[in-house]
Amino acid sequence: MSTLLSPEELEAALRAIGAERYHIHHPFHKILHSGKASLGQIQAWALNRYCYQAHIPVKDAYVLARLPTPAERRAWRTRIIDHDGEDDKGGGVERWLKLAENVGLNRDDVIAMKGILPATKFAVEAYVNFVREKTVLEAVASSLTEMFSPNIISERMSGMLANYSFINQDTLAYFTPRLTQAKRDVEFALAYVKREAKTREQQELVLDALRFKCDVLWVQLDALYLAYVEPRMVSPGAFIPEDARDHVGAGKETARRG
Question: Taking the model in full, what pTM does it have?
Fold first, then answer.
């Protein structure tokens, strides 16, 4: 474990973590993408995922403040603009709100994160705290789940458009820009960790940071699965779908708005 990995070996090790741990493999996503999710399950996913989406620019602001050079800060600043928007132009957070509204959720309730699962809140807070408290190298490395996001975005868009009559391109508008934004962000972050991880110990911190981030994404789906799929143990005060027992997708039924 003391031998320094080459940049190519470090990248290969990072990609191997994604192949094993990325949440594209989670059973909840299999249900979501295959058309077997109920409207209520999709609503629960959209609501809880909003908590994560809304905190992305927050964690990125912590990274931005700690990057040492103007060039690095300029590169990272685009991430905040992507999600918060610029001036009156909505960014990714606004597009996620549109997704939530399009599946029948109340916009104000989503913004207030009314009914999110405790595990969602704890996982998102853990991620923000990780980025704030760990080294900037680890913080940047934790963003590298974006290496694997194009596959899950493509699977999600094709599967949901094909299987749910209440899902359209406008509903999924959040994801289209992410295909190019994530590629750009990965180029910076991957180059950064390959350059700045100068010892084997630092390389191991980079790998552990990516494992941690994969865990953050995975545990959010664990919570959704346990609450809304099986065994349906919804936490006190959490969102309860109106159609908890009625599944849609197989027959492409028209969804009733909540």
Answer: 0.91
